[in-house]
Backbone:
């Protein structure tokens, strides 16, 4: 265990705690997103794991019950033709679009993130269509499924994977680069990568940029269209609160859609799916990214969940997210003995996502105790405590409490 | 319109109807599956589209509400670690296994059928691992997504597709065959193909047999293990009543699992997924067929739906299915003027699935009117009326009524 270089006295700590608690109350009182919390089913716990599984929006159960009882149970097959099932993938994609800075018609919902990474990376290589471009650069620090799937995409398109740290991406780019796959926010450290700058650098090298938005969509502005991103994927069960394992999405920039050549050309991506012709003809637009029959229960639960975003600007969410993580780091710094934890989260706002990751020698025990005491984050083995800050339902008093309980657990 | 070669007189038709209605009542009274109907949410309509979307099992809404409200809403992230979410793909696969004649540990649930076709066909080519075997034979009569996806699998493994009618499959097999993909029951005609015989022929040629069970699982015995099938896929929203677009499944025979090399090696198929290591190491067993995070809402709805099969033998279902389709064909023959419709469904039991397909010149109008009159089948463009017989909730009186209303609509 690191030596405690300093440790506030009991009296001093109580005074700090009062002061930070007062600050928290004032910040909550001024928070223009404070009203969003009532849209969610929450209890007295401080839920700092919305970056792993978003909380349940309170109106979703009734909507799911309608899908199950009426749409499936009563209308049955008629819901495919008369209801709003068939077009759900594109319709829900268009609902996600403004949250990630995309115009309508470019995002389609369905499948898992991993399956969409496969479509996107193979699609990027084929859009590039230059056998001299042998390399797919993959964020070596990212959530590993991206690397596993990109390796398969490389193998199946005659390319090779080159793992790179995003910090070294620009220098790794060159005439042999076909595409680069980068995670916008690192799942472990919470580091936010420079999407505009890296996308421009990738384009400068004549390659395509594929972004994984799992840890940024719903937490901060992405600006897919504004920054000329080529393809992107993301999940919907973190900051978008779509439910456990809810369907992921694929973004194909409009300029690429006519040439997008999916490796998974399932029947629902056909130009005329119900003709059921032996020959495949790809649909136009985002529909080309569909594969099989849409998973309606999960998809319509997600659609309902997205309604909590009505009237909320992602810029407001970002401002609160940074204020929350700043405040959490400040509280941790005040309450936790120096050296007991080490923050992996960048101090500068431009490089910070919406989570705080603290390295801690006895992280498994600490997270278990924290959870039992009503502060729910998660553990990334072997030694990282992750705390996700979801501005729609986490407040400043929650944040102060989380840091205070953390300090108590670390002292225990 | 074909000439009416004969047409029963009014009086004769009424007598026939009475007689067939009496027969139906007797058959229903003797039906050992009659009690299963009360397990489903049904109304007065005759629902003959369970081969497209199975009816809602009556207990599923409460189970889904529990998944949403308690497991997601209250336990939140704890359901992944403390609940039964993580192992759902294998656990539900093992629940499907006895229905298709598979021992436990060989079926994993997740993704769409199309995605699983991709895994299975690429997997078969790689298991075969012989560059001289350039051909993937694909059932040319099947639901087209199989052909579309198999074409992509061929393109990405340096093979080629050879479309064949299953009737010609045996003669098309040879030293260049890598694998054959066949639909067990044709989605349009309802023809049942000879799984044991064709699998043996494929093996005789040194190739691998991949079966699509979408239209057979839950309707008739499949015998995957007994007949030595190599790989199989199927959907769960037809005869398995899993709900609209519910997750599909992949069967990899135990003898192939250690060599099965998935083209979609997502993080949940890793031997130690939470180690989140950069290098991929495939899990053992059916887990190797997983890809991304399981779609919990849909998956647990499916799990609940499968409980209607408790205590029901698939052989009993098959016997009733044949009795129902026999009886329907008999009623159609009795009620419908000769030549007005043509059955595409094989008369011999060994070649019949659990549906009856009738070709009819004005099929779109007929199906629309039938549906409005409470007999729900579906249309396969341009001229096929499909009637699916799901033995768990369709009875003989339903069947007689469907044929009688059909005759009235055809006469209208």
Residues:
């Amino acid at each position: 265990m690191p030596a405690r270089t300093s440790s506030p006295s009991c009296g001093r700590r109580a005074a700090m705690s009062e002061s930070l608690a007062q600050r928290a109350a004032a910040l909550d009182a001024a928070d223009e997103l404070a009203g969003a919390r009532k849209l969610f089913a929450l209890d007295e716990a401080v839920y700092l794991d919305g970056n792993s599984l978003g909380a349940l929006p309170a109106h979703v159960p009734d909507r799911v019950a309608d899908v199950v009882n009426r749409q499936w149970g009563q209308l049955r097959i008629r819901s495919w033709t008369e209801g709003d099932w068939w077009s759900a993938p594109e319709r829900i994609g268009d609902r996600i679009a403004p949250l990630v800075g995309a115009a309508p018609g470019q995002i389609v919902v369905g499948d898992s993130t991993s399956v969409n990474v496969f479509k996107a990376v193979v699609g990027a290589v084929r859009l590039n269509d230059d056998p001299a471009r042998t390399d797919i650069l993959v964020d070596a620090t990212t959530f590993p499924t991206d690397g596993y799937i990109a390796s398969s995409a490389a193998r199946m398109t005659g390319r090779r994977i080159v793992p790179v740290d995003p910090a070294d991406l620009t220098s790794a780019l060159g005439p042999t680069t076909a595409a680069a796959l980068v995670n916008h926010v690192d799942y472990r450290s919470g580091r936010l990568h420079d999407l505009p700058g890296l996308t421009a650098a990738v384009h400068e090298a004549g390659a395509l940029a594929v972004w994984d938005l799992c840890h940024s969509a719903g937490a901060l502005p992405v600006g897919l269209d504004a920054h000329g991103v080529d393809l992107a994927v993301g999940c919907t069960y973190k900051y978008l609160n779509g439910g456990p394992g809810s369907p992921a999405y694929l973004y194909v920039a409009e300029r690429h859609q006519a040439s997008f050549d999916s490796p998974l050309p399932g029947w629902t991506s056909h130009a005329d799916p119900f003709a059921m012709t032996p020959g495949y003809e790809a649909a136009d637009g985002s529909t080309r990214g569909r594969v099989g029959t849409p998973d309606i229960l999960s998809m319509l639960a997600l659609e309902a969940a997205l309604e909590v975003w009505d009237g909320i600007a992602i810029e407001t969410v970002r401002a609160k997210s940074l204020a929350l993580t700043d405040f959490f780091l400040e509280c941790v710094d005040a309450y936790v003995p120096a050296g007991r934890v080490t923050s992996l989260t960048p101090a500068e706002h431009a490089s910070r996502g919406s989570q705080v990751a603290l390295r801690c020698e006895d992280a498994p025990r600490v997270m278990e105790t924290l959870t039992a005491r009503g502060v729910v984050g998660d553990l990334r083995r072997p030694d990282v405590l992750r705390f996700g800050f979801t501005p729609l339902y986490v407040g400043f008093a929650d944040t102060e409490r989380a840091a205070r309980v953390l300090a108590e657990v670390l002292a225990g």
